[in-house]
Design brief:
The chain is mainly α and 105 residues long. The protein is 62% helix and 8% strand. The radius of gyration is 26 Å and the shape is elongated.
Length: 105
């Protein structure tokens, strides 16, 4: 692969999608070798490390990890589920009433 690029005088041009907003451009063989070694050593957790691991991001020149919104707390999640359940129950009652009205006609 390297010989083919040298013969054709073309460089490496690849992009690796890290997240929806972030990509890693690979433009040289040294970057490709570094990324391949990291990918091989980290295995399936490569994408997670590319998103959150400061050391890995520093090696590849990505800078600090982007700030993310705090995840929803367990209490907020339970409240959201209760609200959705109440809405579903009200909607089902309303639909049942409408079905009953159609049956009478």
């Amino acid at each position: 692969e390297i010989l083919g690029c040298v013969m054709d005088s073309e460089g490496v041009k690849e992009t690796v999608k890290i997240s929806a907003q972030e990509t890693l451009p690979i433009t040289s063989w040294s970057e490709k070798v570094q990324y391949s070694a990291l990918k091989e050593s980290l295995g399936v957790s490569t994408s997670l490390h590319l998103q959150q691991n400061v050391f890995v991001r520093e090696i590849l020149g990505l800078g600090p990890p982007p700030l993310r919104a705090d995840p929803i707390s367990k209490g907020d999640k339970i409240e959201m589920k209760k609200l959705n359940a109440a809405c579903n129950k009200a909607r089902q009652k309303n639909m049942l009433k409408q079905r009953d009205k159609r049956m009478v006609l």
